[in-house]
Amino acid sequence: MVFPLQTHLNGQSVHDEVAPSTLLVDWLREQRGLTGTHIGCDTSQCGACTVLLDGQAVKACAVLAVQAQGRHVTTIEGLVPPEAPPGTLHPVQDAFVACHGLQCGFCTPGMLMAAVCLLRQHPKPSDAQIAEALEGNLCRCTGYAGIVESVRHAVRQATPQEAA
Amino acid sequence: MTAPALPSAALPSDLAARFGSGQAVRRVEDPALVTGRGRYTADLLPADALHVAFVRSSVAHGVLRELNLSGAREAEGVVAVFSGADLVTAGVKPQALAAAFRRPDGTPMQSAPRRALAHEVVRYVGEPVAMIVATSRTAARAAADVVFVDVEEQPAVVDPLAALEPGAPRVGVADDNVCAEMRHGDAAASDAAFAAAAHRVRLPIVNQRLAPASMEPRTVLAAPGQGDDVGRWIVTLSSQMPSAVRDGLVAALPGLTKADVRVRVFDVGGGFGMKTGLYPEDIAVLFAARALNRPVAWRPDRLEEFLSAIHGRDVQGHAELALSADGRATALRVRGIANVGAYPSTASAAIQLLIGPWVSTSVYDIPVVDLHYTAVLTHTAATGAYRGAGRPEAIYLIERLMDAAARQMDLDRAELRRRNLVAPAQMPYTNAMRQTYDSGNFPGLLEQALARAGWGDEAAWAQRQAAARARGAFRGRALSTFLEWTSGNSFEERVTVDVKADGFIEIFTATMAMGQGIVTSYVQLAVDAFGVPPERIRIVQGDTDRGNGFGSAGSRSLFTAGSALQVAAQRTLEVARERAGQALEVAPADLQYAGGRFTVAGTDLGIELAEVAAREPEQHLFLESSTTVGGPSWPNGAHVAEVEVDEGTGEVRLCRYLSFNDIGRVVSPPIVKGQIEGGAVQGIGQALCEQVRYDEGGQLQTGSFMDYALPRVDLVAGLPPEAGGFEGFDTHFDTSVPCRTNPLGAKGVGELGTIGATPTVVNAVLDALAGAGVPVAMLNTLQMPLTAERVWAALQCRAGA
Fold first, then answer.
1. CB proximity B459 to A under 8 Å
2. Which residues of A touch B268 (CB under 8 A)?
3. What is the pLDDT of residues B582-640, one digit of tens each?
4. Buried b (16+ CB within 10 A) or exposed e, B422-442
5. Nearest to B717 among A93, A138, A148 (CB)
């Protein structure tokens, strides 16, 4: 049994057929070939699968693909528009590179999507808000210090007049 | 103390100078990883791959009577089902065990034969018993659910002390459950030192079992070779040691030579030792691929990682220190029992029996040791290398002893350490385990850390403690001075340098990237040597067809392969200089080299390095070079932590973490800072919250991130410092003591933070509890992880609590 899915994926209208039980993360990786969203656990604890659903950070392992019907899904691949020059980075991506906010990179797409969601809702978050936004994302490599500094840096870069 | 943000690359003519070693640069790994273009093994599965699900034992010890596979074979999408018996019939061998250690009776170390799929006996919950191969992962898992395993459950032994009791259930092939045993040092001299000692400290110590828990699970793809590789097998997996994987597969599977198997490794989402060596599942997947002549892939779920990936640590026992009246340690005595699981490897035994003991006296000038370690089999998953591999266990022991001794003698903990540190004038220093430290300024590092920490500023410390009391918390602090041993006992690395006519320089090494930023470090060294922009350097790893070696473990990559790279680059330039001289008809000695070009001083005469390559018979200049470094490197540190313990809940908050680290020469400042800090958080995880737990029957109780508590972001952020929150890592590198045994002068950094953080934070918590009035006898028996529950219980033991 298949379900005709119609959704907006990274700004494009997409029609596809999915089994009702297909998880959003599996649909993205296996049927859309978007492997930037990662699977790190089986109990929705690690956050490596975080994407935006109508702008809200969700764990794609805890969402069915059919729940994206008629909605907007943004993955890590969708942070930079396809027409941008090669090498363009979203400001949050640039911040992670500038502040050594990643090591093996496996948790990174999830961290980035959670951070993007945070900054859209709270452009100047407190450290407490940063910690709350990232509490569902595990990292084993960085110890989080570089990640938190990356988010702070993205905030500073977005408000240059206050960086001085 | 955050580092300035790294500027983006702008390609000015001095870019080479801005990217050389010692510069803080953006990692070359990052552009792909931050845009979701990483190539982890699960991202690379071909559309026609078949998928594996393993049926795993649900009992810790049992005799397999029957496997009913008929339901699975008929399930939708199933292509094949294999049992352990099928693999035995096909000639698949158990994994080889290099018997490098001995049992007390002199016989070689024992481990139950480790098969890719269990045959006749299962020995731990989670051991693979059968393999389903299907057209989708979902179909394979559904079919695994209908396999009926008729197992006659046997008594299991999970506790290593119980496993040593006469009559305990047998795990291995010998009459008892001793895997191997070693004694080091001089027991008679130790006994005499303890008898004569003015002070003696004895502590029970448990170093609990941990799960490395890299965020990317192990993933394997085995496929028939295409094109030029027809007849061969291409194995793509997440591994730190491609050559060991290839060699292990060839040893286990019939009819294979090394030439038949090519192992490729692309992006690895964290290793930490968990991805060294070969797993049974790797053998099973290649077996299936060959049997079906199809690509076959296995992606485990997290539960399988907790069940069957190697665990770390798990050693317990007693540690004792003898000291003179003025606090000079005269002997260290340790009795340790290591639980190595049902199927230990040689490394499992080496880690506890040898590698840990090598650093048991650490940075202290302790003349006598008596170390007795026994590795014991139990019905649990195998232990193996996990970040530090033996050194965290040893350093934890000696640092707990130092703090307990200082408390007993009412001596400042820094002063006690100061009195015992090996002095720079004693370098090179050979310790009681006959290991020679080439370099180190331990007192210098200690003094820097103490000054930075304000250790002697009693008034300021009292103020911080008072502020904590006002918050309903007790504040404690501790320091550790320590060193560690690096190299993985493998000192040679072979590098190839290929200067292409198009200006690219391709360098191959058999080390392996796994998140540690080693490629960026190599590029920086290559930029130093060749003076070309970093975009012209290509580092190649992860291909056993290109080259073989030990791989990445034991914090060895930079100082072994980096040294080899530097030497190879110099040799390449020497050869290129000869050729350039021929091309320009001048003596090579008359040429200068800079920025990718040879020139004759004072003239317009010159030739590009790329042009030199183009003039070669095959239009490239290729050089192979092996370098063997002179020995392990001995990175060392002085770490200071301050914590607060909540009186009402027992929760521990990390407030300050300061470290001075000697890793010799620093090539990539932000990268080594990330290694110390990320490593420290892993060490703090052991101190405060992580533990792999089995129940008495051998059932794993920590099979997900709901039960196995990894540190989360709130350890280091979220609470402002004035509320007892973390003030940020304060990380320093003292580069004044280069390593003397490798050309780079570098010492391995990867595991140092983990090793230092565990005892520093544990001792800081104990200091807080001491200040709260918890009796010393209780403090001395407290064990990790110092969860809120344990800390709260200790607080209830205060007089009048």
1. no
2. 104
3. 999 999 999 999 999 999 988 989 999 999 999 999 999 999 999 999 999 999 999 99
4. beeeebebebbbebebbbbbb
5. A148
- Least Cα distance to B336 among B170, B435, B204 occurs for B204
Residue pLDDT, tens place only, B429-471: 999 999 999 999 999 999 999 999 999 999 999 999 999 999 9
Strand partners of residue B62: B122, B153
Look at residue A78 in the predicted model and tell me its pLDDT.
Answer: 98
| Confidence (pLDDT) at B99 | 83
Nearest CB among B32, B268, B705 relative to A46 is that of B705
Are B569 and B522 in contact by the 8 Å Cβ rule? The answer is no
CA A32 to CA B266: how far, in whole Å? 21
Mind spelling out the 3-state secondary structure of B601-664?
A: CCCCCEEEHHHHHHCCCCCEEEEEEEEECCCCECCEEEEEEEEEEECCCCCEEEEEEEEEEECE
| B272 close to A (CB below 8 A) | yes
pLDDT higher than 60, residue A152 = yes
Count of beta carbons in the 10 Å neighbourhood of residue B318: 14
Residue B448 sits at the vertex; the CA angle it makes with B447 and B451, to the nearest 5 degrees, is 80
Contacts with B, A 110-129, CB within 8 Å: 112, 127-128
Q: How far is B18 from chain A (nearest CA, A)?
A: 15
Question: CB atoms < 10 A from the CB of B197, how many?
Answer: 18
Residue B533: is the preceding peptide bond cis (ω within 30°)?
no
Mutate to test the interface with A, among B713, B730, B749 (most CBs of A within 10 A): B713
Do B718 and A132 count as a contact with CB atoms less than 8 A apart?
Answer: yes
On chain B, the residues whose CB falls within 8 A of the CB of A132 are 718
Residue type, B41: T
Quickly list DSSP for A33-77: --TTS----SSS-S-TTEEEETTEEEEGGGSBGGGGTTSEEE-GG
ipTM over 0.95: yes
Neighbours of B365 (CB within 10 A): 17
Strands ordered across the beta sheet of B505-509: B537-540, B505-509, B492-500, B620-628
Residue type at B398 in one-letter notation: I
User: Which residues in chain A touch residue B7, judged by CB atoms under 8 angstroms apart?
Assistant: 98
Pairing of strands B329-341, B368-377: parallel
Beta bridge partners of B234: B223, B262
Q: Angle at CA B242, nearest 5°, toward B239 and B244?
A: 105
User: Would you say residue B534 has pLDDT above 90?
Assistant: yes
Q: Which residue do the tokens 């100061």 mark?
A: B418
Residue with tokens 């395993």: B149
Query: Can you spell out the DSSP letters for A96-142?
Result: HHHTT--SS-SSHHHHHHHHHHHHHH-SS--HHHHHHHHTT---SSS
**B23 CB-near residues (< 8 Å, 6+ apart):** B524, B669
Q: Which residues 42-101 in chain B show a CB within 8 A of chain A?
A: 42-43
CB A51 within 8 A of CB A62: no
Report how far residue B114's alpha carbon sits from residue B122's, in angstroms, rounded to the nearest whole number. 10
* Whether the predicted pLDDT of B138 surpasses 70: yes
Q: Which residues contact B541 (CB under 8 A, 6 or more apart)?
A: B265, B508, B509, B510, B511, B512, B513, B519
Beta strand B50-56 with A56-59: parallel, antiparallel or unpaired?
unpaired
Rounded-to-integer distance, Cα A112 and Cα A93, Å: 7
B151 vs A107: CA distance, rounded Å:
39
How far apart (Å, rounded) are the C-alpha atoms in residues B197 and B191? 10
Contact: A79, B35; criterion CB under 8 Å: yes
B784 Cα to chain A: minimum distance (Å): 19
CA angle B587, B588, B590 (to 5 degrees): 70
Question: What token pair was written down for B285?
Answer: 């997947």
